[in-house]
Structures are given as structure tokens and as C-alpha cells.
Amino acid sequence: MTMSSPMSGYDQAGGGEPVRPARAVPDTVPGGVVLRYGIGQLGAQVFRDTPAVLLPLFMTTMLGVPAWLAGLVVLGPKLWLILCDPLVGAWSDRVKARHGRTPFLMAGALGTALAFVALFAGTSYPSPWLAALAICGLFFIGSTAFSIYSVPYLAIAAELSGDPHQRNRIMVLRMVFAIIGVLVGVGVAQPLIEHFGGGARGWHMMSYVLGAVCLVSMLVTATGMRRVPLILAGSVPGSLMQQLAVVRRNRPFLVLLLASFVSNIGQAASYTVIGFVFLYAIQAIWLIPLFILCMSIASLAAQPLWLWLPRRIGKPRAYVAAALVWVAVTVTWLWVRPADDVIGHIGRQALGTQHVLVLVRAVVIGIVNGGFILLALSMMTDTVDYQRRLAGVANEGVFAGLFSALEKLAFAMGPVIAGLVMSAFGFVSSTGGAGQQTPHAVTGIVLLYSVIPATMQLLALAVFSRYRLPATPPASL
User: Fold this and answer.
1) Which helix (H) or strand (E) holds 200?
2) Bridge partners (DSSP) listed for residue 344
3) CB 232 within 8 A of CB 388
4) Which CATH class is domain 11-19+26-464?
């Protein structure tokens, strides 16, 4: 059994106890630890995806907020996170030797769940402008709470093992719960709204159910990681700016950070309009749960592939392969249209050829999407380990904070881009339900789900082509 590098100290208390004398921690992480760590991603994914997908729909169809303004509502709190995430990371680095990261996980879980419920609690505002302001304030609070949870949570992934394949194993199970989170947060949310009668009550009840999912799963991780041994490599002293100066010298991390940022912008734009695509372009909103289910099952089934393939060809090549297949499939949404035939039935719904093609896309996307997302995170932990090998110290929280901040910024820019494109193509907002849209407006929605994210992913791959992770850190770095 391999052991973590002897140059580092170790936090024997992991998430919650004071540091005891250093001794080696096995690189092999027990399955129970991997499970307790991974389950927290379920609730985190719900908070990450459900507002991204449903807030624009909620604001434009229930509150009468214009599409361009709905995008800005999401952008404002995310801009704050550019500063908040690194600050949370640096803060958790400073106190982890005394208290671990558990206090952050606990506080973040509680705040995130409460804010999620509050986001969809109000449906009667004096004006769309006041509605936008209220949602912006609530999302600001929720995003801050989520930062307090998500940054230390990601940092822990780099502290559980010194073995890159073990870290990939951790990320694979984390991705399994992320997939379940997508299934719950995106696939189940809309049916929940309908199940509870739609309208204001439907939105309220959906928020209670998914808020409870957030709270329970995130608290399982917060309490379950308390006594887990973590690598404690020390941290670079000084201000956040001094710590960031160290990060700037880690070229593999910077390349991966920029590539992920560009990729996430395109994905965020597509996430924003998924409800609009099924409502207006496919005209089968009932198909969303089945689409998410097919994508999730395929992604879950493919996880052994993303354990095996990086060992065979390396993480970078596996990442590129997955991303290229994703681009090829994403472009085909440009030709999506309502079904004009009936080849079968699902319950009371008629199933057409176009519906089947949508589900085929879901399967392929499910296989590759989870692959390049988890590999990006897995390679991020490799760049942190690279820093540890380089200097014997690593501010895991700062690295995680920067990575998280740029991800959240990208997912804030996505709705802004979507709102601007939809407004430019003539999308008309409404109150109390979905309104009719022109074919030109529908074209804008389809572009946001096809050409725009595919183009952004190709740009990300161009950046990623500069990624190199030396086996031995250069002495001059």
C-alpha cells in the first residue's frame, strides 16, 4: 500500500478535530469515506443546476421579468463569488489545522437549503423590477452560503489521497451523485411543479422537496467527514494576493482553469434554455424527465469507463475524446423540431421519431458529459498535488476557491448570454404561464442549445492543448 509523501504533515482529525502529530496516511481511500464524501454532491448539484435551469423560466413565465433582466439577476451574485470563493478557500486553509473544514460544510449546507426554498417562495410582487431585485438578493445570500460549502468540499478531494488514480476514483463516485443530483434537480423539478398543481403552489412545493434533499445530503458529508484523515501539507502564509501569486506560477492549473471556464460558459448557456427547448422547439415539455433519466442512466453506466480509460491513455487524452464526442452530438440539436409522426406511446403521450432522436442524444451526451466534467475536476486535484510536490505546501482551499469561482462565474455568464440572445431574437416574457413565441425567437433558443455551446467547447479544447503536467516539478517553478 502506498503512502502520502513524507514531506507533508497530516490532519488526523480531517474535517473537525485539532491536528495531532503527523504520520503517514494510506493513499488508498476506504469505500465508506468515498461514499460519505460523494453524497454531498447530490444536494450541491441540485442547488447548482435547478436555479440555473428554472430561475430564468420562473422569472420570465411567473414574475414577468424580461429575459435580458433575468440573466442579469443571476449574474450579479455570481460576480460576487469571484471574490467570495477564493476568500472562503483562504479562510478555510487558515483554520483547517485547528477546526478542520467541517464548520464550513455545516454552515454552508444550512444556508444553501434555506435560500433554495426562499428563491421560489414569492410569486406576487408589485412589479417585475421589484421581483428581479428580490430574487437577486435571495440568490446572493444562497450563492454565498453555497460558496461556504462548495469550496472546502472541493478542497477535501485534493486532501484525501496522494495517488492520482485514487483521486479519480473519488471523483467518479462524486460524479455518480452529481448525476443523481441532475436527475433530481432538473428531471424531477418540473414534474414536481406539475404534480402539485402548477402555478405558485407547484413552485413552492417543489422548493420544499428539493430544499430538503439539499439539506440532508450535504449534512451527511459535513458530519461524515469529521474524523477522516486528510493530507495537511501546510499553507503559504500571507495575504490572499500573496497566495494567489503562488497559484499563478502553477501553469498546469492555470491552463485547466481557463479551459474549464470557457467550456462552462457554453454549457451554462445551454442549461439556461433546456426548458425553453423542450417547450418551444420540441413542443414536448413532458419529455424532459425521460430525457434526463436516459442521460443519467447512461452517465451512471459509463462511470467504469472513466475509471478505466484514463489509466489506459491518460486523463488529458480521455478528456479530449469525451469533449469532442460531446461537440459532435451537441451540434445536431440545430436540426431538432417537433415530432410529426407517431411510432408508439409512453403513457398517454404519443412518441414520434424526433422524440426518439432526442433520447438517443441523451444517451450519448450522458456517456461523455460526465466523463469530461469529472476528468477536469480530477486533473484539478492533480495540479494541487503538483504544487505539494513542488513546494511541500499547498493552499488547497485557494486552488479550489479559484476553480469554483470561475465555474460559478461561467454559470452566471451563461444566463446573461442566453437572455441577450433570446431578447435579440424576439423572445417575449409573460406572467402566469408560457406565452406564444415567433419562429425567429425559437431559432435563438435552438442556437443557444447547439452551435453556441459547441463552439465554446472547441475554444476550450484549443486552450487545453497547452496543458502539460510534468511528472517532476521543475526546481525553478
Assistant:
1) helix 199-224
2) 351
3) no
4) mainly alpha
Q: HSE (CB half, 13 Å, CA atoms) of 5?
A: 19
What one-letter code names the amino acid at 393? V
State phi, psi for 395 to the nearest 5 degrees: -85, 80
Contact by Cβ (8 Å): 70, 55: yes
Nine-digit cell string for 263: 467550456
How far apart CA 239 and CA 244 sit, in angstroms, is 9
Tell me which H or E stretch contains 344. Answer: strand 344-346
Length of the chain: 477
In this structure, the number of other CB atoms found within 10 A of the CB of residue 182 comes to: 26
The C-alpha atoms of residue 197 and residue 78 are separated, in whole angstroms, by 32
CA distance 61 to 64: 6
Residue 62 one-letter amino acid: M
Mean pLDDT by 10 residues, the chain (477 residues): 37 39 58 92 91 84 85 82 88 78 92 94 85 92 94 89 86 89 83 85 92 96 85 62 75 95 93 89 90 88 91 94 97 95 90 96 92 90 84 77 85 84 87 77 95 97 94 55
Query: Which amino acid makes up residue 314?
Result: G
Per residue in 251-269, is it b (16+ CB within 10 Å) or e — as a string?
bbbbbbbbbbbbbbbbbbb
- For the stretch 371-409, what's the b/e string if a residue is b when 16 or more beta carbons lie within 10 angstroms of its beta carbon? bbbbbbbbbbbbbbbbbbbbbebbbbbbbbbbbbbbbbb
Give the C-alpha distances (Å, rounded to integers) separating 381 from 6, 167, 341, 345, 420: 19, 7, 49, 46, 35
Show me where the domains of the chain are located: 11-19+26-464
